[in-house]
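User: Design a sequence. Structure:
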């Protein structure tokens, strides 16, 4: 997978978030939630117009260029928010976290801001750079799609269902278009042609003749997927208040964060149970039986989704903004960390395997009618 060069123009434009946020923080009129929402919408609108004016050729070639440019700006803003909430910087975005989206001050909010300000930001620059040079960015786009969709779905749902449901301000409705962007961007990314592979028909046939026991790496991944599926189901039952002793011990001694009334961890576990659990079963099937050409794409999507989710979940479980009674106990910290780290690492290994050795997932080549005729005679 080629790594496209980063977009310098987008990087420079996104860094304008620093002086803009600092200036707005000192405008007294922004102490009202409605003005915060209107000013935020105005800035994003002006930013979109500026991107379209300065990069008309790139936007015409691929409209997602404008989306990546605007989102790169908001990623810098999110990084500023995270650094501010952890007291690394001051005087930038207090007005927004107080009057715009106070739920960003939660531990979960801080860590999704860190992820957006680092991983998503680099992805935006890489994808925008690929568009500038007319290169493919399908794999990066699929990883971003899963990560972005998981982040926004858990965050919005948790805001509505959790203890911050009474703190929803007008700025909350600015995030609603974020639900539409993954749908449109997903169709654009999936419609891009796949990168050409060097797999010949003979390589595909030879690889697909091997049984699962002859492919130890795939066997290990299947075992991982089965174990991850059971772990996903177990944690889903835990947040659904399963009365068994095992669930009671786990939620109080290993992951008390699942009881946090902010609702993000409960929503996250239910997302895992409804979406990741079926994927684990389907992926295990695709690793066992050849020709499942859908797996490489969806492995990237789920790697992005689970990577983002586990980063936010693990970080929030131990962050100081999480009440002490809901943080991971010190005596079980090692078990919690190893289990959750493996849960995040496995989908990335699966995606890597699918990208590096894709022959097993290709559709079986059609049999040669001439060769078949000669064999019969």
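Assistant: Done.
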């Amino acid at each position: 997978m080629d790594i496209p060069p980063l977009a310098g123009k987008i990087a420079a434009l996104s860094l304008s978030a620093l002086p803009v946020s600092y200036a707005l923080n000192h405008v007294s009129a922004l102490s009202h939630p409605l003005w915060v929402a209107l000013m935020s919408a105005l800035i994003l609108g002006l930013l979109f117009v500026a991107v379209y004016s300065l990069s008309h050729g790139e936007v015409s070639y691929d409209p997602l260029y404008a989306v990546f440019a605007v989102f790169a700006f908001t990623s810098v803003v999110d990084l500023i928010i995270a650094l501010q909430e952890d007291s690394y910087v001051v005087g930038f975005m207090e007005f927004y976290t107080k009057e715009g989206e106070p739920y960003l001050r939660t531990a979960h909010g801080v860590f999704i801001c860190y992820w957006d300000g680092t991983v998503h930001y680099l992805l935006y620059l890489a994808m925008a750079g690929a568009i500038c040079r007319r290169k493919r960015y399908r794999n990066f786009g699929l990883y971003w799609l899963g990560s972005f969709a998981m982040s926004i779905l858990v965050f919005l749902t948790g805001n509505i269902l959790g203890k911050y449901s009474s703190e929803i301000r007008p700025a909350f409705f600015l995030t609603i278009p974020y639900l539409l962007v993954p749908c449109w961007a997903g169709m654009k990314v999936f419609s891009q042609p796949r990168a050409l592979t060097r797999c010949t028909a003979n390589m595909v046939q030879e690889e697909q003749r091997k049984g699962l026991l002859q492919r130890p790496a795939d066997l290990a991944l299947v075992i991982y997927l089965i174990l991850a599926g059971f772990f996903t189901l177990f944690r889903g039952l835990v947040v659904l208040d399963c009365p068994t002793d095992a669930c009671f011990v786990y939620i109080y001694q290993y992951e008390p964060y699942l009881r946090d009334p902010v609702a993000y961890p409960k929503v996250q576990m239910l997302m895992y149970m409804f979406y990741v659990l079926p994927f684990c079963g389907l992926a295990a099937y695709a690793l066992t039986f050849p020709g499942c050409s859908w797996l490489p794409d969806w492995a990237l999507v789920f790697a992005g989704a689970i990577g983002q989710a586990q980063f936010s979940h693990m970080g929030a479980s131990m962050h100081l903004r999480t009440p002490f009674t809901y943080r991971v106990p010190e005596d079980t910290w090692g078990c919690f960390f190893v289990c959750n780290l493996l849960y995040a690492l496995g989908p990335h290994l699966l995606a890597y395997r699918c990208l590096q050795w894709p022959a097993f997932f290709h559709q079986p080549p059609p049999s040669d009618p001439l060769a078949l005729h000669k064999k019969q005679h």
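The chain has two domains: 6-189, 202-359. The chain is about 70% helix and 0% strand.
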